[in-house]
């Protein structure tokens, strides 16, 4: 029998707000599928240190970290299969960031579009951490010598930077790090319910996304008030297409999905028919997740134990690698 260790997969999610369907379809669904496919050993982290690059008050941060942990467990992250932990619990992430800082050209970070966007959005808080964000992300991935990184396409530039850092390290000190590859989801990108030209994110207000924590009433209301067509045609950024994408993801009856898609293509779609069907389909999928979520909320001790065990597993790999890295570069 082969005892070959499976390659590591790493991904992370910030704790900036509640888990919404955009996060779920763009990332979490894929993580759960990969976790169950047995090809990789997944490592998934709630990246709290990335979260503080944008100002957030302590009580809210703490609550967000807990909520995100619970939401991920409720939607299918299985701590028996996935090494699941909160980033700051494993100090080696920051230690490796510093080492990487010393080989990362400033010019590479100046090119990052996410940095430019966030800097424009938060003019009063353009802090060094915001600028250094991609180096911490490179450290997240490379600390475990992870080979694959399942993320949304908007993160490709950051994964590319991780490859640049790996290459720089290897050129200077000899081959050590693999060059990690992104793994994109096949799911279409979910757009904002209120401004379908933008991706679904918590930046555009609570009406623009559906969170796992939303009540059935809220979900029905949000779908009801969702922006529909800009004027027909299946162009990107179209509200109608976005609702059909949602239906295709959440409705288990293919015939219903097909019928609405055909109506849409023929310009005969009635949103007054689609919207209640869609809301019902989403509610049905969310129901067992919300039940699990409620249970986990009542079992804080279990959640804490899961995170502690995950951090221990991550730390075992991290401490071994960081020791090797420090030896390679002459720190010890
Ligand atoms: N930057 C990622 C995002 O905003 C989150 C993240 C942090 C991440 N570290 C990571 C993703 C490492 C993949 C691997 O979505």
Q: What are the SSEs and their pairings?
A:
Blueprint: E1 8-13, H1 21-37, E2 41-46, H2 48-51, H3 58-74, E3 83-86, H4 92-101, H5 106-110, H6 113-121, H7 128-142, E4 148-150, H8 156-173, E5 181-183, H9 216-224, H10 239-250, H11 254-265, H12 271-297, H13 300-329
Parallel strand pairs: 1-2, 2-3, 4-5
The protein binds tryptophan.
What's the quick description here?
This protein is mainly α and 332 residues long.
The CATH superfamily of the largest domain bears the name: HUPs
Q: How are the strands of the biggest sheet laid out side by side?
A: 1-2-3
CATH topology of the largest domain: Rossmann fold
Q: Helix tally? A: 13
The small molecules bound here are: tryptophan
| Tally of strands | 5
CA gyration radius, whole angstroms: 21 Å
Strand content: 5-15%
Query: Terminal Cα separation, in Å?
Result: 38 Å
Topology as a string of helices (H) and strands (E)? EHEHHEHHHHEHEHHHHH
Number of domains: 2
Major beta-sheet overview = 3 strands, parallel
Low-confidence stretches: none
Classify the helix fraction into a percent range: 55-70%
Q: What is the averaged pLDDT score? A: 95
CATH architectural type of the largest domain:
3-Layer(aba) Sandwich
């Amino acid at each position: 029998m082969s005892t070959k260790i499976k390659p590591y997969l790493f991904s992370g999610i910030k704790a900036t707000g509640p888990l919404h369907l955009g996060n779920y379809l763009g990332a979490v669904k894929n993580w759960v599928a990969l976790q169950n496919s047995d090809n990789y050993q997944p490592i998934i982290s709630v990246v709290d240190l990335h979260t503080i690059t944008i100002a957030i008050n302590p009580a809210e941060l703490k609550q967000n970290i807990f909520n995100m942990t619970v939401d991920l467990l409720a939607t299918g992250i299985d701590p028996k299969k996935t090494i699941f932990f909160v980033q700051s619990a494993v100090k080696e992430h920051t230690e490796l960031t510093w080492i990487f800082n010393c080989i990362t050209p400033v010019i590479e970070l100046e090119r990052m579009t996410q940095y430019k966007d966030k800097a424009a959005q938060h003019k009063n808080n353009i802090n060094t951490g915001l600028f250094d964000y991609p180096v911490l992300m490179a450290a997240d991935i490379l600390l475990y010598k992870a080979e694959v990184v399942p993320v949304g396409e908007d993160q490709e530039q950051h994964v590319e930077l991780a490859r640049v850092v790996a290459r720089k390290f290897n050129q200077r000190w000899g081959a050590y790090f693999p060059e990690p590859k992104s793994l994109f989801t096949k799911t279409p990108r979910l757009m904002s319910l209120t401004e379908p030209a933008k991706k679904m994110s918590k930046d555009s207000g609570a009406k623009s996304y559906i969170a796992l924590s939303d009540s059935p009433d809220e979900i029905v209301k949000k779908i009801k008030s969702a922006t529909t067509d800009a004027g027909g045609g299946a162009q990107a950024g179209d509200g109608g297409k976005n609702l059909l994408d949602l239906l295709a993801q959440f409705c288990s009856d293919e015939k219903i999905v097909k019928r609405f898609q055909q109506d849409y293509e023929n310009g005969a779609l009635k949103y007054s028919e689609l919207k209640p069907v869609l809301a019902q389909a989403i509610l049905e999928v969310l129901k067992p997740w919300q039940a699990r979520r409620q249970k986990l909320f009542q079992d804080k001790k279990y959640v804490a134990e899961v995170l502690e065990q995950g951090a221990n597993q991550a730390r075992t790999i991290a401490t071994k690698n960081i020791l090797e890295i420090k030896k390679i570069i002459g720190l010890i």
